[in-house]
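User: Last request for today: this protein with calcium ion, please.
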Amino acid sequence: MVIPFAGCASDTSGKTDGENTESAGTANTEDTGLTPDVPDKNYSGASFTFFDRNEEYTGWQTIDCYAEQQNGEPINDAVWQRNSVVEDKFNIVIKELRSGMDMDKTLYNSVMAGEYIYDACMMRGTHSSLAAQNGSLFDLYSVNYIDLSKPWWDQNANSDFYIGGKLYFTCSDISISDKDGSWAMGFNKRLLEDNSLENPYDLVKNNLWTIDKMYEMAKTVSYDLDGDGIMTKDDVWGITAEGYDTYAMFFAGGERIFKNNAEGYPGSFSRLGKSSKKERCFITRHLSLIIGANQNLLN
Ligand SMILES: [Ca+2]
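Assistant: Here's the final one, the structure of the complex with calcium ion:
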């Protein structure tokens, strides 16, 4: 899995109307009382350009901001329909430019050159934070017509990415990438039964589901199935995972790298920061033991 992507808006002229329009023009007839509160205005055919990830991102290229034409694929066609409605409503032309793994550099060079060709960027978290630091992005709170309190903005992302009284990037319903990148944990019921292990659902309900418990259960079921003395793909593993799962478990456990102080700047290192060095080592070691690349970790 991948850390949820941040949708980064880089407005160039205060005409950021295309952001809050996901539901516009759809067949949704339910009146939620929610409106984007964007004034009717004719932008005389002005362009609004998304800067998106290209095929270098394999399964994570952007597919939710722009569609060239309808092709029968549901997401593509929904995007096309949404953009068409917005284009007609505001008399704008929605465009897309794509880039590979150097998006932050491409954006930076463009901004420094005064080109202002990108209006909104869909970049990975690392690129977003670099772009925020090098001055490529606007503070979303300063952009006209973006109301970050609306429910289509991810309030957790707004809160966690807020720094120094500014928010340079966040997540919203415009993207499905963060939903595609949601972490989930499954378990093998037969292995649990065969090993007379506790029911994970009950452990969760009773607030007893911990990293220690998961580790203990995983060790119980892991064994050298083919008896060759080493653990390989042909054996029974208590956990299979990939590297980024470490981060997911870290954050899902309520941990944060830092928390802002009253002035809105990183001021404390929440639970990890308050814990002793010994405790921090313990947590890190456990996460590494469980999720790490060591092939023998559960042997
Ligand atoms: Ca083996």
